[in-house]
Design a protein that fits this description.
The structure holds two protein chains of two kinds. Chain A is mostly helical. Chain A is built from ten helices and four strands, in the order ααβαβββααααααα. Chain A has a four-stranded mixed sheet with strand order 1-2-4-3, with helices on both faces. Chain A starts with a helix and ends in a 7-residue tail after the last helix. In chain A, 44% of the residues are buried. By secondary structure, chain B is an all-alpha fold. Helix content of chain B is 77%, strand content 0%. Chain B has six helices and no strands. The longest helix of chain B has 57 residues. The relative contact order of chain B is 0.16. Classes of the chains: A mainly alpha, B mainly alpha. Chains A and B meet through helix 3 of A and helix 1 and helix 5 of B.
């Protein structure tokens, strides 16, 4: 896929995504209106639309506050600024993106923002401590290619929308149990009530499935174009290897923003729980990503 | 009648094709120009830096006039260069001169330890890295722009509309300037 095709595909997926979320919120609203009170439909609709517009406008800021990202001080992080500015030039961005930092010992990085101009990159302090210059360049190139390929808009939007659906269903779940007056008694009322609860419980899962659909393959693509930007796939592969070996947990990451990061920030459980979990992983395994880089770049990392 | 419709359709199709190719070429040319602007920024930054670097070394090693002159001459040549190929040539000479200048500085521990010199050296390293990045990007865009112009069928549009192949920014002789981006902590 060329860059242009990917940008175009991203535009379509963004529209699709908005549509799917509208449908999802609409379905929740209709079921609720039917099960509990018609007026809930209006409430859900208004809250959904207002929150949707609000999140579209401030997606970058919401993500920053959800992850604990702060603007990085140039005097304090000269090496980071140097690498980001250099890689931005290699990537052909007209200007380097703003740089944010998360004070967290777990090494990780992400890019977010609504548009090409407002997108920023963010790294954790743990990443800076762990990576040497070459590896840091690889990671930044991965993030900048998310920006250049217009992935960030889609991914930031997903983060915010997953948050909205979770919030909405949580909120309604509570009022439906505690304060929701049922309009009709009897069996029919009970069935409707149960249906309503089921819809509320399933909504976040549906939201996560949408999140998955947009995120996994994107990581491979960002790895590939990141390697192309620096001309050094091995540097990125070495960085991924370090991330693979590191077991520190990212503190601020939640389910809603997990897919933004270069590495899955949520803890990797093993065994049965791990298998279940991998079904819902936002990222392909790091080993597979390293293998893909090795194949494309014609090199082989020494075994870990 | 049918013939005219066919001819008309072909003419329209050709026109649409020409417009698409033309726009594609313009986009590629803009990319290459952005790439060149990036190189230019770094070349200017370095041209501004060089006199300060020379002054700093002069303070300790005034007798190395030969080296200072060659650096200053290379800087002047680089500022007067017309076009990427000449600029790359001048850049290679300046890089050689800077390497000699830094080698001279090596012999003066006091100079190497001075804060001013360290700062200049760090900035030079920053410029060198960014120049390398800008060169990579520019040469990639020039490669794409030129190959579209050379290949059929876009060559049919490129020539009549006055698109010209761009020069690469490269020479074989250039040795990288030998500074590393060191951060004091």
């Amino acid at each position: 896929m060329t860059l242009k095709e990917q940008i175009r595909a991203n535009r379509w997926r963004t529209l699709w995504l908005l549509f799917l979320f509208a449908v999802l919120v609409g379905v929740i609203g209709v079921i609720l209106g039917y099960a509990f009170q018609p007026s809930l439909l209006v409430v859900v609709g208004v809250v959904g639309i207002v929150y949707g517009i609000f999140s579209w406008i401030s997606a970058g800021k919401i993500v920053a506050s959800a992850t604990g990202a702060q603007p990085a001080d140039r005097a304090q992080y000269p090496r980071l600024y140097h690498v980001v500015e250099t890689v931005a030039i290699s990537a052909g961005l007209s200007q380097p993106p703003p740089i944010y930092i998360v004070d967290d010992p777990a090494p990780n990085a992400f890019a977010a923002g609504r548009s090409l101009d407002t997108a920023y990159v963010c790294v954790t302090t743990g990443l800076l401590d762990l990576m040497d210059e070459r590896e840091l360049e690889g990671v930044i190139a991965h993030e900048l290619s998310h920006i250049r390929n217009r992935d960030v808009r889609l991914m930031s939007l997903v983060a915010v929308l997953v948050g909205v659906v979770a919030l909405l269903s949580d909120f309604l779940f509570r009022i439906s149990i505690f304060g929701g007056g049922r309009k009709s008694g009897g069996t029919a009322g009970l069935i409707a009530f149960a249906l309503g609860l089921a819809a509320l419980a399933l909504a976040p899962i549906a939201a996560v499935l949408i999140q998955l659909a947009v995120s996994r393959r994107r990581e491979y693509l960002a790895d590939a174009s990141g390697a192309e930007i620096t001309g050094d796939g091995e540097g990125l592969a070495l960085a991924l290897r370090k991330l693979e070996l590191d077991t520190t947990e990212t503190r601020h990451a939640s389910r809603a923003v997990a897919h933004l990061y270069i590495e899955n920030p949520l803890n990797q459980a093993s065994g049965m729980r791990g298998t279940m979990r991998s079904l819902f992983d936002t990222h392909p395994p790091l080993a597979a990503r390293i293998a893909a880089l090795e194949e494309a770049g014609g090199f082989k990392l020494p075994p870990a | 009648m049918v013939v005219w419709i066919v001819v008309g359709a072909v003419v329209v199709a050709l026109f649409v094709f020409a417009v698409l190719v033309y726009n594609h070429l313009v986009r590629l040319r803009n990319e290459a120009e952005t790439g060149w602007a990036n190189i230019d920024v770094q070349l200017k930054r370095r041209a501004d830096l060089v006199p300060n670097l020379v002054e700093a070394v002069k303070g300790y090693a005034a007798h190395e006039r030969e080296t200072f002159d060659s650096v200053t001459r290379a800087r002047a040549a680089s500022q007067q260069a017309a076009g990427p190929a000449q600029a790359a040539q001048a850049d290679a000479q300046l890089a050689g001169g800077l390497n000699r200048l830094l080698a001279v500085a090596e012999a003066y521990p006091q100079l190497r330890a001075s804060e001013n010199f360290l700062k200049l050296q760090q900035e030079l390293a920053d410029i060198e890295d960014k120049l390398a990045a800008a060169r990579r990007y520019y040469n990639q865009t020039v490669y794409r722009f030129n190959s579209v112009q050379q290949t059929f069928p876009s060559v049919l549009v490129a020539r009549p509309f006055g698109f010209h192949e761009r020069q690469f920014f490269e020479t074989d002789e250039r040795d990288p300037v030998n500074v590393s981006f060191a951060v004091q902590t």
